[in-house]
Amino acid sequence: MNKPRTAIALAAVAVIAAVVLFNARPKPVAVDLLELAATDVQTSVVASGRVLPPAKVEVGATITGRVERVPVREGARVKAGEVLVELERAELAAAAAQARAAAARARARVASVRTLALPTAQAGLQQAEANLRLAEQEERRNRELLAKGFISQARLDEAVRQLEVSRSVLASARANAGAQAAEGAEAQQAQSQLAEAEAALATAEARLAQTRIRAPGDGVVLERLIEPGDIVQPGRRLISLALDGAVRLVVQVDEKNLPLIRQGAVAVAAADAFPNERFEAVVSYISAGVDPARGSVELRFDVAKPPPALRADMTVSIDLPGPLLKQALMLPADAVRQLQTDAPWVLVDREGKAVRTAVKAGLQTQGRVAIAEGLKARDRVVLNREVEDGTRIRARR
């Protein structure tokens, strides 16, 4: 009679022990699981940037003066050489007129030397030469007459004196003609005075021209910082211009996207203000360096046919297609874990337990990463970052 009771008691104890052990085990944690499937993936880089002005010019004055007129406003389109600012010019105009008159006098003197003084000097030289020949003949004839006793010594002495005077006059005429010649002192002095007068005129006209500040090229007025009556000085910014030229975009992309980028690739871009006006942009420049603070790389894009609404410094978004990954296993980038010294790894569901599995990451695109090694299709990866290796898990409903 005691044996059956003992067996029943032992069975009851076993059941109770099993229940206690079952309740002592930790309950599975509900997690989000992603079952991998091999698919073809078109990679792309999506980033934001801005429109880079072809050239932004700060226009200023080179002289001090009072503003008389500002014929342009912000947003106005201007042509190269168009007047942007006019300064008062009365004083400089008078100085230019004075310099112009001085230059005219210098030209007149040069013309006078060439057309009047030089011919006169040459005529005087010819007359002096003729007088010298006559004096020489007279001196010879008087010597002959004196030898024959027809004239006195005083007559010959007078002829000799006239000869010396004629020679002196000829020397003076030659010097005068030489001075008036093209290489002579008078002509050189006249030319020098003309050069000085013309230089002074050029300076005066240049200063007068500086009272009209003109556009260096075709473009659009961005800022107008002065009004009539203002006093301006060299170095002060008066007008800001965005000059016309090729439209370019500058974009900062994450350095992880470098494998997806190549020079000459064509992206689709749109200004944030006009998202429906999409246009093509070609990668023309990839920076050789990486910004260490942001971990980004600068790209520049050329835009051959920009939309009319595109303006300098506008924010734009670009979508740059990358290579096609065939039969790739893709994971959200957040599912791949990696410490500073560890290789990347993920947690995989192995019969209800989260098991740490090392992986080799490939290309990244749009927040997803391709898994090159370590996983296979139909593996279920734990997406929850708070779950640890070895945790009992179950799929969240």
What structural keywords apply?
4 domains; OB fold (Dihydrolipoamide Acetyltransferase, E2P); four-stranded antiparallel β-sheet; Elongation Factor Tu (Ef-tu), domain 3; rod-shaped; 397 residues; 23 strands; conserved putative lor/sdh protein from methanococcus maripaludis s2 fold
Description:
The chain has 397 residues and is an alpha+beta fold. It folds into four domains: 26-42 and 328-395, conserved putative lor/sdh protein from methanococcus maripaludis s2 fold (Beta Barrel), CATH 2.40.420; 44-54 and 244-323, Elongation Factor Tu (Ef-tu), domain 3; 56-88 and 211-243, RNA polymerase II/Efflux pump adaptor protein, barrel-sandwich hybrid domain (OB fold (Dihydrolipoamide Acetyltransferase, E2P), Beta Barrel), CATH 2.40.50.100; 91-208. It has helices at residues 2-24, 90-148, 153-180, 185-209, and strands at 29-31, 33-35, 39-52, 55-60, 65-69, 77-78, 83-87, 212-214, 219-224, 231-232, 237-243, 247-254, 266-271, 274-286, 296-303, 315-328, 330-332, 345-350, 353-358, 360-365, 368-373, 380-382, 393-395. A six-stranded antiparallel barrel has the order 3-12-15-14-13-16. The protein has a four-stranded antiparallel β-sheet with strand order 4-11-9-6, with no helix packed on it. A four-stranded antiparallel β-sheet has the order 8-7-5-10, with no helix packed on it. Strand 20 and strand 21 form a beta hairpin. It starts with a helix and ends with a strand. The model has no long low-confidence stretch (mean pLDDT 84).
